[in-house]
């Protein structure tokens, strides 16, 4: 019993010391946004350098394609920093920004990350082949084959988004409990899911917070 009281007092004191809204605002909306902007500038500079050098080598083509996918991913993260700003919900506008990001930026970020990983895998394989076949590597990895592989990587990863965007869309949904209309993600009839209402979402947040506090007390 004494341990539970000690844990509860420690948690309350911990909450008083740290303002999670301020911490999230500084970390996500300020620091991460600034780092993301620097990443955008760096990738644009890289693309200009590769274009200036000429996209006539396999490595330049691969790095140029990686810069494109990195820009898409960084833009998605920058959009996430706006949508998950702790103070944006206090604006009392009829948009659920977490659902908005899920449709407009969540899957795009995942897709861009996968594209970057697959291109890096291709670059790694190419470097390994350079060691194994140093004299014939130019005949194995040609510019045409590299372009075909890059296009295939982009096409295959973008293709995985088609089922998601064919079944999910944004729509105005009326919530009876709050007597308000919100922009939520909605599902077509061919997808076995139902968009959660605003009230249910708030109840889920309260339940998660309660479970978190109970776990701290039990610890």
Automatic annotation (TrEMBL):
<dbReference type="GO" id="GO:0004930">
    <property type="term" value="F:G protein-coupled receptor activity"/>
</dbReference>
<dbReference type="GO" id="GO:0016020">
    <property type="term" value="C:membrane"/>
</dbReference>
<dbReference type="Pfam" id="PF10328">
    <property type="entry name" value="7TM_GPCR_Srx"/>
</dbReference>
<keyword id="KW-1133">Transmembrane helix</keyword>
<feature type="transmembrane region" description="Helical">
    <location>
        <begin position="99"/>
        <end position="117"/>
    </location>
</feature>
<keyword id="KW-0812">Transmembrane</keyword>
<dbReference type="InterPro" id="IPR019430">
    <property type="entry name" value="7TM_GPCR_serpentine_rcpt_Srx"/>
</dbReference>
<keyword id="KW-0472">Membrane</keyword>
<feature type="transmembrane region" description="Helical">
    <location>
        <begin position="28"/>
        <end position="51"/>
    </location>
</feature>
<protein>
    <recommendedName>
        <fullName>G-protein coupled receptors family 1 profile domain-containing protein</fullName>
    </recommendedName>
</protein>
<feature type="domain" description="G-protein coupled receptors family 1 profile">
    <location>
        <begin position="42"/>
        <end position="219"/>
    </location>
</feature>
<dbReference type="InterPro" id="IPR052954">
    <property type="entry name" value="GPCR-Ligand_Int"/>
</dbReference>
<dbReference type="InterPro" id="IPR017452">
    <property type="entry name" value="GPCR_Rhodpsn_7TM"/>
</dbReference>
<dbReference type="InterPro" id="IPR000276">
    <property type="entry name" value="GPCR_Rhodpsn"/>
</dbReference>
<feature type="transmembrane region" description="Helical">
    <location>
        <begin position="148"/>
        <end position="172"/>
    </location>
</feature>
């Amino acid at each position: 019993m004494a341990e539970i009281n000690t844990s509860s007092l420690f948690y309350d004191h911990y909450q008083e010391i740290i303002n999670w809204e301020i911490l999230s605002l500084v970390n996500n909306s300020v620091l991460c946004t600034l780092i993301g902007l620097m990443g955008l500038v760096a990738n644009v500079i890289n693309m200009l350098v590769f274009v200036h050098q000429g996209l006539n080598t396999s490595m330049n083509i691969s790095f140029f394609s990686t810069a494109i996918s990195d820009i898409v991913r960084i833009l998605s993260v920058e959009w996430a920093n706006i949508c998950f700003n702790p103070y944006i919900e206090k604006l009392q506008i009829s948009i659920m920004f977490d659902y908005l990001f899920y449709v407009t930026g969540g899957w795009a970020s995942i897709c861009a990350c996968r594209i970057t990983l697959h291109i890096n895998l291709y670059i790694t394989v190419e470097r390994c082949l350079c060691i194994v076949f140093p004299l014939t590597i130019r005949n194995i990895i040609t510019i045409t084959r590299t372009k075909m592989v890059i296009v295939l990587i982009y096409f295959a990863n973008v293709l995985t988004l088609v089922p998601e965007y064919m079944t999910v869309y944004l729509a105005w949904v009326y919530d009876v409990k709050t007597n308000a209309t919100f922009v939520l993600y909605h599902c077509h009839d061919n997808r076995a899911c139902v968009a959660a209402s605003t009230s249910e979402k708030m109840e889920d947040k309260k339940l998660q917070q309660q479970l978190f506090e109970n776990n701290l007390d039990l610890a």
